[in-house]
Amino acid sequence: MAARPKEGSPVRPAGSRQVVHFPDPVLRRKALPVRSVDESVRSLVDEMFRLMDEEDGAGLAAPQVGESLRIFVTGTTERGVPRRAYINPVLELSGDFESMEEGCLSLPDIRGSVRRPVTATIRALDLDGNEFTETSSEFQARVWQHEFDHLEGVLIIDKMSPLDRLRVRRALKDLKAAADEGR
Q1: What is the model's pLDDT at position 6?
Q2: Per-residue pLDDT averaged across 14-21, rounded?
Q3: What pTM, to 2 d.p., does this model score?
Q4: Nearest CA to 57 among 77, 43, 71, 42?
């Protein structure tokens, strides 16, 4: 068995990462801030974009690739979400709440209704270490909230309606069983 890299240190070679599935403990940890935007962070972000594209996702957070760092990426042309990296993001939420069905790359084949504020403003660092701010009331605002939740150790199953939680209970047990078999 190989030793795990030190938490918060993106040291895995490019191409070796994969999407981490529930119930991996990294998905439940609050991610650590990025100390500096350097080549290791840019390499991790490149890998995250690659995996997000391979899995056909709208976003992907660093904990979903086994790195407990406050980074996520977004991008899907079909839903109008620009391709961008968000490092050490801070979210401000406002507006009415809206329920919408969500899925998650770390919870394959599990979908449920999640209620979120419609409007979000995000402040983060880009890949050059420059701060930027964006506001959206579109699908992009939902993606930011979903990926930010990952940085806080929160999953969609924590925010689903009670009925949806009951409906996906069996699928969650199957994911746990698969993880136990893989150990």
Answers
A1: 38
A2: 84
A3: 0.89
A4: 77
In 3D space, the residue among 92, 41, 83, 38 whose CA is nearest the CA of residue 62 turns out to be 41
55 a catalytic residue: no
C-beta separation of 129 from 92 below 8 A? no
**Please, are residues 139 and 133 in contact by the beta-carbon 8 Å criterion?**
no
Q: What pLDDT shows up at residue 182? A: 75
Q: Which of 88, 80, 102, 96 is nearest to 148 (CA)?
A: 88
Annotated catalytic residue, options 47, 67, 102, 147: 147
What would the pLDDT profile of 36-64 be if each residue is shown by its tens digit?
Answer: 999 999 999 999 999 999 999 999 999 99
Q: How far apart, in whole angstroms, are the C-alpha atoms of residue 143 and residue 56?
A: 14
> Which residues, in sequence order, are CB contacts of 51 under 8 Å at separation 6+?
17, 18, 19, 57, 60, 65
Q: What is the pLDDT of residues 66-112, one digit of tens each?
A: 999 999 999 987 777 889 999 999 999 999 999 999 999 999 999 99
Beta strands in 126-169 (DSSP E): 131-136
- β-pairing, 81-104 vs 59-61, is unpaired
CATH 3.90.45.10 matches 25-182:
yes
Q: SS3 for 39?
A: helix
Going from N- to C-terminal start, the domains of the chain cover: 25-182
